[in-house]
Amino acid sequence: MKALALLTALATGAILLYGTMDFPAFGDPQSPAATHLSAYFIEEAVRETHVPNLVTAVLGDYRGYDTMFETVVIYCAGLAVVSVLRKKKSRAPENKS
Amino acid sequence: MRLLQDQIAKQKLGESLIIQTAVRILVPFIQLFGLYVIVHGHYSPGGGFQGGVILGASFVLLALAYDQKFSMKYMSEKANNMLGNAGALIFTGTATLCAICYGGMFLDYSALDKLIPLGPIGWRSFGIFVVEVGVGLAVMSIMASLFWVLGSNGEMDEGL
């Protein structure tokens, strides 16, 4: 059973690695991802937002929706951990007579 | 400073004076650097998440070098929770304010120009800053409270 699981994992990994061969080269300026939005951000972001750091401009303004829910996810994670694990200090048992 | 000196006076076993002194000197600078990373996110690598993590790490460092009760003298649980809530609320509140009150699109900061006239582009720049502060507060609070809760078995007492 373990051998079968290992075989499945290896086969899936091999297929995924084979899939990466069709990716454009790393940092290729002609790749589809780099020809539409990237050029627009590089040309227009400073003029439109007055933020010299393009990463911040994209993260905080153009993709603000994404960043907002990243924050909400972190907030929910913290809220869940605190509400599950937090407990009152255990006191000496009260004598209800 | 007073607190730290008192704490050192009643040295506990197994707590190193060298580490405690180093932490005592470092923590204000770590927090200042965290604020710098948040505020300077427009011009250099950084922003809310990174700065918030640095701020939260300063409380974790205090809790490790001293004990948890000691780090909670600097940031009480209540204040920490309120800051976290405020952080999340700043982000979502700004976004909603743009959409509901000033007729822009959701998260379109330039709509806030009608509230305080900074110009649409000025508001897009300043809106990012407001939002980053919110992210920083939320991340700082979550970092600290995660460590406190997990490190003290939920009792927020002595901790590790």
Give the helix/strand layout.
The complex is a heterodimer of chains A (97) and B (160).
Chain A: H1 2-20, H2 32-35, H3 37-49, H4 54-62, H5 64-85
Helix pairs in contact in A: 3-4, 4-5
Chain B: H1 2-9, H2 17-39, H3 48-65, H4 68-74, H5 77-100, H6 120-151
Distance between the termini of chain B: 22 Å
- The helix-strand sequence of chain B is HHHHHH
Radius of gyration of chain B: 19 Å
Strand content of chain B: under 5%
Written as H for each helix and E for each strand, in order along the chain, the element string of chain A is: HHHHH
Sequence stretches where pLDDT stays below 50 over 5 or more residues of chain A: none
- Quaternary arrangement of the chains shown? heterodimer
Helicity range of chain B: over 70%
What share of residues of chain A is helical?
Answer: 55-70%
List the total number of helices of chain A: 5
Walkthrough of the structure:
Chain A is mostly helical. Chain A has a domain at 34-84. In chain A, 69% of the residues lie in helices and 0% in strands. Chain B is mainly α and 160 residues long. Chain B has one domain (2-151). Chain B has helices at residues 2-9, 17-39, 48-65, 68-74, 77-100, 120-151. The A-B interface holds A 48-53, 55-57, 59-61, 64-65, 67-68, 70-72, 74-75, 77-78, 81-82, 85-87, 89-90 and B 41-45, 47-49, 81, 84, 87-88, 91-92, 95, 106-107, 109, 121-122, 124-125, 127-128, 131-132, 134-135, 138-139, 141-142, 145-146, 149-150, 153-157.
